[in-house]
Structures are given as structure tokens and as C-alpha cells.
Structure of Kinesin motor domain-containing protein:
Amino acid sequence: MGQGHSAENLPEEVLFEILNFCGPNFEDRQSCLVLSKYISGVLTTNGAYRHYLQRLHIERGIYSNPVPGPGNKERFLALLKRQDLWMSGEGGGEGDAAGLENGEEDEHLLPLWRQKAKPCTTENFNIAVSARFKPKEPEGEGSEENAKVTLPLHQRIQLIKMSRRLKKTSDVLKVLKHEGAWFGNKWQSIESSEEGTNKENNGVPQAAPAQEHLVSGVHEIDPMNDRVVMVDPTKGLREFEFDAVVSPTVSQSTVYDSSARPLIADFINGFNATIMVYGQTGSGKTFTMFGPSGSLNNGDRGIVPRACAEVLTALDYRKDHLQIPMQSRLTVSYVEIYGNDVTDLLREGAPCGHSKVAAQEYVLSGAASYQISCMDDVLKCLTTGDDCKRKASTAMNERSSRAHSLFILELNQQNLDSGVSCKSRLFLADLGGCEQIKKSKVNVGKSNHLQVLKDETMGAAGSFLKKEAAAPAAQEPHVSDDESAPSPSPFSTGFQQSDRLREAVYINLGLLALKQCVKSLNNAESNYVPYSDSKLTLLLSSGLGGDSKSSVIVCAAQESKHSAETTSALLFGQACRKITKTARTGANMLAELIAKIDFQIKETEAGIKAKERWEIIEEKRKDTLAEEGTMESMGFGGVEVKKITVLVGAEEEREKLNNLLKERAQLTGTTLESEIGGDKYGGAVGFGKGYASAYGLGKSVDNDQESYRFKDDVDADAIPEVLKMKGKVGGWKGMNDAHDQKTLEKMAKKANRRKMAYAGVSA
Ligand SMILES: Nc1ncnc2c1ncn2[C@@H]1O[C@H](COP(=O)(O)OP(=O)(O)OP(=O)(O)O)[C@@H](O)[C@H]1O
């Protein structure tokens, strides 16, 4: 409950906002009500802004989550910038400023919606990263022993400063001295010999029992300051800061509120959004994203069902309450990425698209989507998809996801009055868990399989061995999810377990590609992000570096035996947090990515044009088809020296162009050959149909051999005008002076006549 206010003692900024809201004549009854409540002290400033947020939604269609707690003012001022999202034309909608004389505009008195529109479509932001820790499991005996870490002195000092809230290093040294820990017995023996053993502790906070070693693992989870302190066996003490750190005991709804909810509002307001969970296998990614099995309808449900519920509730509300007539359509796609295969989990795992290349375009174009209108539809989709997912038991997780899965919501909305429409997508990615094969033990099947083969071929004698082999096999992870299912034959066990290994490799490869993309995005000098390295990164490309708002939730285990993996996951989160992006409403990720690549292709082509020149080089070639018994066949002589013309000077640009064309081919779902073969690209630099043959360039630039650049017969016509004019054709005597076509032709012929010369011994 706020303090009582009178109109006179209202803070100026509040009065200004309220005046803006109510208009010069206080004609808006609801705003008057808010104002009167505020003045009488019934409403706090925060509460008043809650009302403004509601108005923004009802009158302008700008959604905000009903979040309890403070911060409504900041939210309102941020959303105010988007007020014209659903209005047509430029400027602030009905900017006729009723109540004012012709053309007279007083900003302070203009009602909120009648102010000039501010540009609302782009927002700069960093990827938001949060960390969530799974509750601790009891560790096996001896694991602590193995994970002891001795910190270097400076880190030990830092740790004591943090844990005892000490500022001065001299105080920390007193603690160390008292503990006798870091220097061990040596310090104590020096102390006892010099000062006696029972000296008083002069004002330093009483220390815990001496602790010479720290145990590796999570040392401190600090949700208040969104900080995690790790003790890593190889790197010592490490501190990580995130946008949110949630304590291991928090509920699923708290995780949703802190890491996902703001993005759901952005999604409804026309931004593309991406939320992904990243972490080691068994760290709680699926738990966070979907919830434990059977929880889709209860309080334990994860981000996906919660997000769907919030979007559906918001759309229902908008249908009945908005003052602008909005039409909306919500669809869902649910796919799994396994190596280079993308499968539709809502169509019994059918492959997406007609080819592996086109799969991502198929998904992003919405061809795999289904319309949903209520929570029942969502639950059906989730159950159908879940039944279809690759899951198996490993030593690390009873129900381990064996591929990356992507749940995509697509929302199409239109203001029927203004005709303005907007499409936005929400990507919810449950990434497969990075796993160390030796820990998840998914490679055990290989040896089982071989053992079975051995037994089979040994016939009756093998049956004895089979029994022997059965004992250790029983301790290995079982692969069936279904306890009641008939136990698999040893053959199938072998196959299934080697499948686990392949799955682990595919998952790790996708994650590696993801890490490479994050690295490139963080490297200011890198102008190429290798999205096309994997299907996972292709599908997530817009979420990582494109136009969408993104949030990464790092899931991790606290146990010391997982400290290396936890540190690595937290480092990934930290790298993601540094990526700055520009998000825009109504962005079409795929089309824009392609347009961006097209622009880069044009720039690169211009660079090649400006830099490239012809040069004559001597190439030594050996006769590989020499007759038997000749000197050449024995490796002596027979070397042909050929003078050949070669394009040089823009090698880096050509490589870049090649990568860009590859990336474009991946995005458009075509092949590199068709990108190069068309007239669209590289006409001037030798990739177009005409130039490719004139320059003697092979069709496939995928082929790394340099020979595609060589050409014996130089056709002077083929030398680009730009090179002739600039006299850039260097290395060829007299070429710099050549300006007319005839001279060029003559020189080309002369060079061809002189090109053959034999060196060495001939037979
Ligand atoms: N925060 C949590 N609270 C309680 N239990 C949890 C939590 N996180 C995970 N678990 C439990 O830990 C187990 C593994 O979780 P989950 O399957 O979500 O891991 P994962 O990271 O998705 O693993 P994988 O990559 O192998 O699929 C499950 O039994 C899950 O219920």
C-alpha cells in the first residue's frame, strides 16, 4: 500500500506520465480512476504503472506479462516505444492531437497515444544467460578424495576475501596464518618456534578448521548476486556472473519467470525468440524444458508447456478485450535433429523435406507445423512428440535424450483495421547433453556385440562363454526404457549400444559446431560464422546471431566428479552472454539471412575484382604414364616445365566467397553447384556460366585442388575489363602497357607458343 498523495505533492514525473495518459481534458475515465486511486494512496507508483501496461495492451495490442513485483515503470517505458506496432503508416497513428488548435502541439499535454511515434522495431541486447543447478546427489566413496584441489595463493586469498567478506589482504593473511592451511605444517612450525603455540587471534574472524585442500566442484551458488564460484581441478577458482542464477531448490515456475517469461512477451509482440538449454548429459535440460515425465499438466511442468499456456491465455484475452480487432493463428512444429537428419516428431519421425539439404528450409518455412488453439492440442503434440523421441538409458541418465530437439511456435497476427500483420517464431531447444563416452559408458555395446558374434561362431562351446559374459554385462547400463519389455537379444543389445555411441558422437558434433559459432560471433575480426557446419546451428542460426531475442539456460551438476563438465558448460554460457544482437519485430529470419549473405557475396565479388590479376608461373609436371623401363618411369628426368597463366591476388576473398556460397546453398536448401552454376553469382569473377568456361574454371569450387584455376589457352576476351583498364595484369612482361584488345590477344598467343620446354634427361 502506498503513502497518501495529493495532486500537489505528486512527483513531477508521475504527474507528467498521468497527464500524458489522461489527455488534456482528463477525458479517459479509467485513467482518472487510476489517478484518483494513486492520489488517495490506494495505488503505489508501481501499481499505477501496472494499469498503464494494461492500457497499452488493450488499446495498442502491446502485450506484457502480468509479473508480480516491482519494475512496472521500466517495463512500461520500454514497451511504450513499441506502441505503433499494429498501426499502419508512419508516425504516431492518429496524430491529429484532438483538443489542440490547428497544428499546435504541446508534447506535455498530448495524450500518450497521440505523441509522435518513436522508432520501435529494433532493439539491441545481449543474449540473456542463466544458470540452474540440479540438486546434489550423494557421491560415492572416494570421489571427494580424487577431486582435491590445492589453490594457488592469490586464489586462496580471493576465496577467503569472498567467503569472510574481508577487504584487506593483510586480514586474509592473518586468517591463513591462523588456519596454517595454505602453508601447511611449515607455517605452523615456524610460528611455534618463533612465537609459541597458543597465541591469541587478534580480531580476525574465527576461522573454520584448517583446510589445506578444496574439493573441486561448485563452491558457491549465489542467486542474490547471480554469481557462481567454481573450483575446477585444472583451472582452480573461477567466478561466473550471469543474468540469473537460480538455487537448486527453486521451483519450475521461478525458472520460467526468470529465464523464459520476458521472451514470451517479446514473441507475442512480434519478435522472434529463442530459448535453449545447454549442459552435460543428465544435468536437467529436459527437466527444465519439458518437466519430468507425466508432469505436463502439473506444477512441475517445464518451460514449453508453460510458454504455450501463457501464449494461449494471452491470445484468448486479446480476442475478447483488445480495442483493435486482431486475428491470430498459432502453429507448432516439433522436430528432432540427429546428425544431419531432421525428423518430424509429430509425424512419427518422418524425415523433414525431400532431402537432407532442404530439411531446415522445410522446417523454417512452416511446412512441418500444426495449428493449435488450446492446451489440449499442445499436450497432444507434446505426448506424440515425446513418444517419438530418441531416448535411452545410459550410465549418466535413466532417460537420456539421444538427439537435439526443437519445439517451434509460430504466431501470425494481423490488425484487421490497419491490415498490419506480423509473424514471429519462438524456438525452444532442448540440446542433447555433452557427454564423455567413458562416463556415460555408451561404448560398452561394441564389445558386447563382438562378444556375441564370437559366441555365435563358436557354437556349443560358445554357450559356456555366453554365461560367463552375462555376469559383467548385467552391471552395464540397460538400454530399454520399458521395464516390462522383453529383454533384447544379445545381438540387438550390441546394435543398440553401438547406436548409443553414434548418438553421442552426433550430439557432440552438433554442440561443437554450436561452440564454433559462438566463438566466431564473439570474435570481432571473424566475418564468417560457420552456421552451415551442422543442421543444429543452421536451425538455431537466427537465435544465436540473427534477429531474435535469445536466452540460454545452462544446466549443471554440483558434484565434484562433474566439475570439469560444469566449468565447461558455464564457460559456454559466459561466451553466449557476450554476444550482442539487434532484434526486430516481424523479422523473417531466413529471408534476411539470405539477403545478408547476398550482400556479403556482392562485396566479396567486388573485392576479388579489384584485387585479382593474371600471372604467369612455371609449373613442373611429371609424366605419370611413362612407359615401363624408361628413365621417366624410374623417377629420373621427364619433367615438363609449363608456363601457365593463373589468377592470383584474391585468394582470401575467393575462399570467403566459397564459404558464403556454401552457406547460401545450405540456407536455400540447394546445392553449391546450382548456386555457382547460375548467372546470379560471380559473373564478373569467373563463377558465372560464361566466365567459368572462358577462364577454364571447373564447375565445382568444392574441389580444393588448385588446378581449377589453371588454363593453358588464355582467351584475352576473358580478362575482365576492370583488370585491363587498371593495368592490373601484372607479372607478364609488357602487359601493364597493354590497353587494346589486339595487343592482349597477341600476347596471349605468344605465351601459349612459348609454354612448352623440356628439362632434364629424356629417354
Ligand atoms: N532441478 C531438478 N530437480 C529435480 N530433479 C532433477 C532436476 N534436474 C534434473 N533432475 C532429474 O535428473 C534426471 C536427469 O534429468 P534430464 O533428463 O532432464 O537431464 P538431461 O540434461 O536432459 O540429460 P540428457 O542430455 O541425457 O537428455 C531426471 O531424472 C530428472 O528428473
Summary: The chain has a mean pLDDT of 69. The first helix runs from residue 12 to 22.
